[in-house]
Amino acid sequence: MKHVGVHNDRKVAVMFRQVPNEPDKCLIVYTESLPEDTMKAVNECLATADAQNSTVFADAAYRFKTVTGEGLLNTIHIGNLMNKVPTSEVFLTPNEATRVALSEVNAAMGDTTATSTPTSAPAPTGTPGTLSDEQIATSLRNQAATMQKEADRLLAEAEELHPLPKRGRGRPPKMETAEASSV
């Protein structure tokens, strides 16, 4: 399973494989230390096709809704549950027999940054391991733009397959009855 690993013998989910301007750092959550509802949501999200097809787990977590209807990434961010740690200390464990350093995976993928936020974004401020509101907003805007492009593409494809009838302007004119016209 993608995005899972260990840090100091504790199970983690890797939210962002790299931090902007700090390619040797990543953002993780210690899954077993999360509140029960959040831990369940993280595990459910990890098991989805969306998460397994995402390069960055945070993208899938952003789209995943918790039992309260809030986005999982927002829940984790607001709860101050992400931790910034060196990529060399995180080992991905996609199965029982595999253990690979995240730094090696990032190097093999040729990533200079594996996050949705631009590399020019400022480094996180405040509590270590948290994203700034500006970084979250930038990520949300990038995700919205990507989703908008996909929605436009899907609408164009649907229109090619079966065009909707052309809509006229306003209501059709009322038909006059014979009685009304003879008065």
Give a structural overview.
With 183 residues, the protein is of the alpha+beta class. The protein has seven helices and six strands. The protein has helices at residues 36-46, 49-53, 57-63, 72-78, 102-109, 133-161, 178-182; strands at 4-7, 10-16, 25-30, 83-86, 90-92, 100-101. Strands 4-3-2-1-5-6 form a six-stranded antiparallel beta sheet. The longest helix is centred in the C-terminal third of the chain and has 29 residues, at 133-161. It is elongated and about 85 Å long. The model is unreliable at 112-129 (pLDDT under 50).
Give the ordered list of helices and strands.
EEEHHHHEEEHHH
What form results from the Cα inertia axes?
A: elongated
Query: What's the number of extended β-strand segments?
Result: 6
Question: How large, in whole angstroms, is the Cα Rg?
Answer: 24 Å
- The total number of structural domains is 1
The low-pLDDT segments are 112-129
Structural class: alpha+beta
Helix content: 25-40%
**For this entry, what is the oligomeric state of its chains?**
single chain
Compute the average pLDDT.
82
